[in-house]
């Protein structure tokens, strides 16, 4: 006599997650990823799911071609408003107060020779509003104090992170949960290249 079919185990029609019902709204598949690239892939998927165009980058590094910052050759003064409402519009002329010099606006007086602009590559500082492709203004004459965003030299490469101290030791903090903080073992050297003062973000 043949026993009745078991109601436990095996594949059941209609069971399991429906294709396209997960976070990505389409079928997925297993994929082997190098351990060092896991944060990059996770960051990419998070922003892809949110509809953000995000190139794959290994982290947030700063391009090596640092350029001195000098805003020159402008054709005329730039009109400046102290406040612009983000709600209902108002007549623009009511808000124009003065004209500004971008050199004085972006560069601290006396720090002209120590101020540079660098281009950011990567997404580890996304939480601080610094995106891949942004340009940052870096002042090498400022003191790199606790909590400041800095450009540091790590293993011969420039990187941008927030500077913190734990038990008296410097730690470079990423502003993206998919990227690890950078700690330093005994004997490792950390050089602070400069302090970030502005972010130039294209819209």
Automatic annotation (TrEMBL):
Keywords: Autocatalytic cleavage, DNA damage, DNA repair, Hydrolase, SOS response. InterPro entries: LexA-like, LexA/Signal_pep-like_sf, LexA_repressor, Peptidase_S24_LexA, Peptidase_S24_S26A/B/C. One of its GO terms (biological process) is SOS response. Residues 83-196 form the Peptidase S24/S26A/S26B/S26C domain. Pfam families: Peptidase_S24 (PF00717). SUPFAM superfamilies: LexA/Signal peptidase (SSF51306). Gene3D superfamilies: Umud Fragment, subunit A (2.10.109.10). One of its GO terms (molecular function) is hydrolase activity. The keyword DNA-binding does not apply. Residues 1-35 are annotated as: Disordered. The keyword Thylakoid does not apply. It comes from the Bacteria. PANTHER family: LEXA REPRESSOR, LEXA REPRESSOR-RELATED. Belongs to the peptidase S24 family. This is Peptidase S24/S26A/S26B/S26C domain-containing protein. It comes from Metallibacterium scheffleri.
């Amino acid at each position: 006599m043949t026993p009745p079919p078991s109601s436990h185990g095996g594949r059941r029609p209609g069971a399991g997650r429906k294709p396209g019902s997960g976070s990505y709204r389409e079928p997925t598949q297993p994929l082997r990823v190098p351990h060092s690239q896991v944060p990059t892939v996770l960051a990419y998927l998070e922003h892809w799911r949110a509809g953000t165009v995000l190139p794959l980058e290994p982290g947030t590094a700063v391009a090596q071609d640092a350029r001195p910052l000098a805003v020159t050759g402008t054709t005329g003064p730039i009109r400046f408003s102290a406040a612009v409402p983000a709600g209902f519009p108002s007549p623009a002329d009511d808000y124009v107060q003065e004209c500004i010099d971008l050199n004085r606006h972006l560069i601290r007086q006396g720090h002209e020779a120590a101020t540079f602009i660098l281009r950011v590559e990567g997404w580890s500082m996304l939480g601080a509003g610094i995106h891949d492709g942004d340009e940052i203004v870096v002042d090498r004459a400022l003191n790199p104090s606790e909590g400041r965003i800095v450009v540091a030299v790590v293993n011969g490469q420039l990187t941008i992170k927030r500077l913190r101290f734990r038990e008296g030791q410097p730690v470079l903090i990423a502003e993206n949960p998919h990227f690890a903080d950078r700690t330093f073992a005994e004997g490792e050297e950390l050089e602070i290249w400069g302090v970030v003062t502005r972010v130039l973000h294209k819209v």
